[in-house]
Specification:
The chain has about 425 residues and is of the alpha/beta class. The chain folds into four domains: about 120 residues, Methylthiotransferase, N-terminal domain (Rossmann fold); about 110 residues, Transcription Regulator spoIIAA (2-Layer Sandwich); about 120 residues, Transcription Regulator spoIIAA, CATH 3.30.750; about 60 residues, Nucleic acid-binding proteins (OB fold (Dihydrolipoamide Acetyltransferase, E2P), Beta Barrel). The protein has 14 helices and 21 strands. Bound molecules: S-adenosyl-L-homocysteine, iron/sulfur cluster and FE3-S4 cluster. Iron/sulfur cluster binds next to helix 7.
Length: about 425
Amino acid sequence: MAGRKVYIETYGCQMNEYDTELVYGILKEHGISKADRLEEADIILVNSCSVREGADNRAISRASQLTHLKRKRSGLVIGIIGCVAQRDKGKLLEKYRGIDLVLGPDSYRKLPEILKNMNGSPVVKTEAKRSELYDDITPFRQTSVSAYVSIMRGCDKFCSFCIVPYVRGRERSRSPQSVIEEVRKAVDSGYREIVLLGQNVNSYRYERVDFPQLLLMVSDIEGVERIRFTSPHPQDVDERLLEVMKERDNVCKHIHLPLQSGSTRILKLMNRNYTREEYLELVEKIKEYMPEGAITTDIIVGFPSEREEDFLDTVDVMDRVRFDSAFMFKYSPRPGTKAAKMEDDVPETEKDRRLRVVIEKQKEHTLYRNKQLVGKIEKILIESKGKKEEHEVRGRTDTNKLVVVKGIDCKVGEFVQVKIVDAAGVTLFGELIETS
Ligand code: SAH
Ligand code: SF4
Ligand code: F3S
């Protein structure tokens, strides 16, 4: 098996990106290295996402398109892994010819053995394994300046629109020891920013350690200059978490707080466990603790039975909070979820209109929030060099905003102090002050 090469295309959230790193890590230990290009691969895996219909289709049509490569390359293995694999299992083989492998998120350990024993007939492995945390696997990192570290897997929240609990299984947390060990390793190999991942990071619990405590432990690790985490659930944000965020310099003052809807009636149907008032109160509290901090969100428009007044409630919450940025989606029914049994009664054209309205609104708010930074000094972590201009770099502020700095020459991974001189759209422009 040694000498073979694998290439993975990843769709979906950061958890999936992290899983791709785990799969590369697992295969590396068995002598299968990462192919730099698709053309060099003996094994191609599509790590799929099923959160919305669009994502779902993209991943699967890509996988079936890739099967054409088999005509030219004999022995090429094509697999679908991740969330669509978990949901559709063997059905994928019936629907798409040429797929050799369907593997769910709890079965990645089996991959080397499966690849070794492949005999021409396709393999499906999608058993849910509650205990699987992959905490002994060293991920083969694909990111440049910030390292993802998953602190938990699965989700028990069962928001009525969401497929994640069905494809990722029950919530389980990694031991603090294994999280810390992985963070240490990432720091040793040069990462200075750590992103703690989970579908619900703040319901993390391992024996007596909860999320604020884990955050403190990670914050104490030498060499960790920045810690981010995503996503917390509004229901589980408590003041202890806000205290840790405020107190610790290396915990970023940014919270991604998915709103989903601003209407209490819709939130109830979504099974989100908070009201519009509770959400707004929480935002006030966050602003008290971190007046300079950033709040970002996720919004769904067109959930079943969403009337104009419900939609206007969402717009109203946006106006009150003025989010720094937002991911905005049209509701997409996911078979098997509770919401999929409700009538998807908001017409597509109306969903489109509502989406356009929130996108326009968010653009205004992002610009408003970004303009408040003009004239301020910010420490940014350089994450890439400009593609067109040689002396242009891009970096992120503590609050996760992208800053373009022209006319400087510094390395990816460096922290620099810049003065924000302009804000346009979602981008800030800065001038170098000093290198730290
Ligand atoms: N665990 C994360 C969310 C993961 S899914 C959290 O709770 O924050 C990312 C986002 O996709 C969700 O916040 C939601 O806004 C959106 N989403 C999930 N299911 C969806 C669906 N069926 N239709 C439209 N958007 C959906
Ligand atoms: Fe989905 Fe809700 Fe879990 Fe997020 S918290 S993954 S939206 S069920
Ligand atoms: Fe998608 Fe699975 Fe993530 S459904 S959003 S890749 S957990």
